[in-house]
Description:
The chain is α+β, with helices and mostly antiparallel strands.
Amino acid sequence: MPSLKPFRIAATYAVVSALWILFSDKAAVFLFSSTPDMLLWISMVKGWFYVSVVTCLLWFALVRFERQSSLQSEQLQNSEERYRRIVETANEGICILDSAFTITYVNRVFSRLLGYEDQEMLGQPLAGLFAPEDLPDHLQREEERRAGHPGRYERRFLRKDGHRLTTIISAMPIMTDSGAFEGSVAMVTDITEAKQAERALRESEARYRSVIENISDVYYRTDARGNMIMVSPSCAKLLGYDSVNDILGYPNTQFWQHPELRSEFLERIKNDGEVRDYEVVLLRRDGSPITVSTSSKFYHDIDGNIAGVEGIFRDITERKRSEEALRDNEERLRVIFETSPSAIFLVDGTGHVVMANNRTSELFGYTREELIGKAYPELVSPEQRDIGTNLMRALMVGEIDHVSLERRYLRSTGDPFWGQLAGRRLEGPKGEFKGLVGIITDITERKQAEEKLETAFELTNSILDSIPAAIISLDERGRITHFNRSAQDLSGASFLQARGAPLLDVLPHLPFSASQLEEAIRTRGTVKATRAAMEVAGGSRLMDILLFPLEVAGHVRMAVTLEDVTERVRVEEVMVQTEKMMSVGGLAAGMAHEINNPLGGILQSVQLIKRRLSPDIPRNDEAAGELGLKLADVLRYLESREIPTFVDAIQDSGVRAAHIVSNMLEFSRFSESKRTPAHLDGVLDKAVELASNDYDLKKRFDFRRVRIVREFDPDLPQVRCTRTELEQVIFNLVKNAAQAMAGVGAAATDGEAGPETPLITLRLARDGDFARIEVEDNGPGMSEEVRRRVFEPFYTTKPPGDGTGLGLSVSYFIVTSNHKGTIEVESQPGRGTRFIIRLPLEDASGNGVRA
C-alpha cells in the first residue's frame, strides 16, 4: 500500500501557498496602496521569496523522506533479529499462541518463571498452566482475543513445583489482513513480590491511617505557606469543628491565639531541626483557649526543598491546670505541714529523722535542728522500742506498707505522753524505698478519757452482769447487741455466740413470735409477759418478760429483760403454805391446850378411881362397909372382870397422849437462837420420836414400820446447839429417808421387786474437834445430778404438791450458818444415802471448838 506521507506533504504545501498568496497580497495592498512603485517592488520580492522558500522546503522534505525510507528498509531487514533478541533478553515472559491458544513459542524468562524447560511448554494449552480458580475468567478472555480485542489482566499460574505465581498478562491478538484471528502474543510479568509488597503497603497504609484516625493526639501537616493540608480527625474534635474540612486550607496561624509567635516557632525548628514539647495556645471555634504541646519539624519534597511543617500536638490544658493545681496543692500542703496540729516527720533508711514540722518540735520539746538527725527510736518510751523497731524494719523491707498504732513517747524533759502513730512506707516510681512518713497525734487526754470510759463501761457491765435478771439489747433489726451474764446463764450461749444473732435464735422459747417482735420494733411498742413458763438452759422456769424501746444516741433500739420469778413464786407459795402452817400450828397449840384440859380430867379421874379402890386408904373400906360390902370382895370382883387392867390402860394412854401433845407444843413454838450444851443422843431420840408420829394414808406409809438402828458413842461430849433447830434437821433427814424408802416399798406392792426391810442407821462419833452425826438409809439412793443439787432451795424430785424443796436447804442453813458446821451427802443409785453432819465440840471453857 503506497505511503500517504508525500501526499500529505504536498497538500500541506499547497494550502500554505494559497494562504500566503491570498493574505500577502492583501497585506501589501493595504500597506503600500498609496505608493504604486513600492507596491510593485514588494510584489516582486514577495514572489521570489515565496519561490525560494517553497523550493528549499521541497528539497528538505524530499531529502528527509529519502533518508527515512532508507532507514525503514534497513530496520525491516533487521527487525526479525532485533525482535528475537528483544524477546530473549526481555525481563518479562513472552509466549506466542496459535488460534487454539496452544503455545508455539516461549522465551527463556517465561519458561523459567513457571519452572519448565523451553521445549516442555511447546504444544501445551495455555489454560493448563493457570490456577483452577482463574480458568473460567481465562476462557472469557480467549473469546475477547478471538474478537480482536487486546487485554491486560492479573492471572495466577501454577508452577511446575505446584507453587502459585501471580502475574500481569498483556495479551495482543494477531489478526490477518482479512480480519481473521490467527493467534496472540502474551507478555507475562511476575508481580508476586510486588503483590506481597502491595499488600504489605496497604496494610501499612491501613495501620497508618488507623493510627492517624484514632490517635488521641493530633497529627497535622502544612504546606510551605503555612496552610493546613492534612490533619487527623481528632483535630476537629479538639478545636470544636464539625469535620476536618472546616480546618483544611486555612492558615495555621488562624488557630493560634498569638499568631506573632509562629515566626519564633519556625526559627526554632530551623535552628534545632525540630521542636519538642513546645507549648502553644490555640483557640477553639467558640473562642476558648486550649494549651497544646507540639513536637514538629520541616518535611521536604523530592528535590530536598522545605515543603512545610508536620508534627503532633497534644492537648495539655488539663495537665497545665493540674500543674497549677499541683503548685497550689504543694503550697497548701506546705501550709498544712507547718500548721498541722499533728507532728509530721520523715525518717530515712537508717531510722533517723530528716524532716519535721513545727508541731513535732512543740510535741517533743526539741528544736527542729535538734530533731534533724535524731534516731526515731530515742523518741519512743523504752518499754515499746523493741516493737517499734521491728515494725520500722518491716516497713523498710516492704513486708508491710503502713502501720497504725497507739504508743507512749518521751518528751525532751523525759515526761511520757500517748501518741497515735500513722506511718507509711514512701516509695519511688519504681517501688524503691525512699523513707518513712510518720504522723503523731497527741492522744494523752483521749487515753485518759478512754480509761475513764473503760472504767465506767466495765462498772456498767459489772452492774449489768451482777443483776440477777437477764438484760438484752437489740438493734433495729432485732439482733442482739448486749447480753449480760444472767442472759448467758439463762440461754447457755456466750456473749460472742449471741452477739449479732436474732433474739429468737438464741432464746427460741420466748412467749412471743417473730412477727410480734418485728411489730414491737416497728411501732416502738412494749410487750410484756408475766410468770410465763419458758424452757431455758436450767430447765423450765417462770419468767417475767418485758420488751420495751430504748433510745441510744438518737436511734431507737429495743431492750429485753427476763426475770426468773420461779423462786419468788415458790416463796410466795411457801409463804402461803407457811401462813397456813402457822395457822395450823396455832390451831394445833390451841387444840393441844383444849385437849390437855379433858385429858387432865381423865388422868385425874383415873388416879382418883385407883385411890378410891386402894385398900391402903381406910376411908375406902369404911365407905364399902356403909353399903354392906367388903372392900376386898369388891376388889376381887373388879380383878375378876379385869377392871384394874382397863384403868391402867386408860392411864397409860392418857399419859402417852399428854406426852405427844407436849412434844407437838414444844416443836411448834418459835425457835430461840440461844444455844445451850446438849447431848446429841437425846436430840436424835427426840427427833425420831417426833417422826414416829408421821403417817401418810396416800402412801400407805407408817414410820413405825421403819427399823431404827442407833450406833452412839457413849463418851461423846456435849455440843452447844439450838436443840429445836437441830431436832428439825434430824427430823427432816429421817423423814425424807423414810419417805424415799416408802416410795420404793409402795412400788414393790404393785408387783415389782421391793427393797429389804426399811432401815435407818443413826450414828454419833467424835471426828477430831467435831461431833459427827450420820443418818444412813438403805433406800434407792440418788443420781450424781440430784446429789449435787440436793441442798438447792426449792429443788425437789417429788411430784407437785408433795413437797416444797426447802427441807434440806433449811437444814443446810441451820447446820452451816447457825451452828458453824458442815453437812454433806454420799449416795449412789441403788446403794442408799448417807448424810454426814459435823458440829464443833465444847472445849474446857465451855466454848465451841473452832476448826
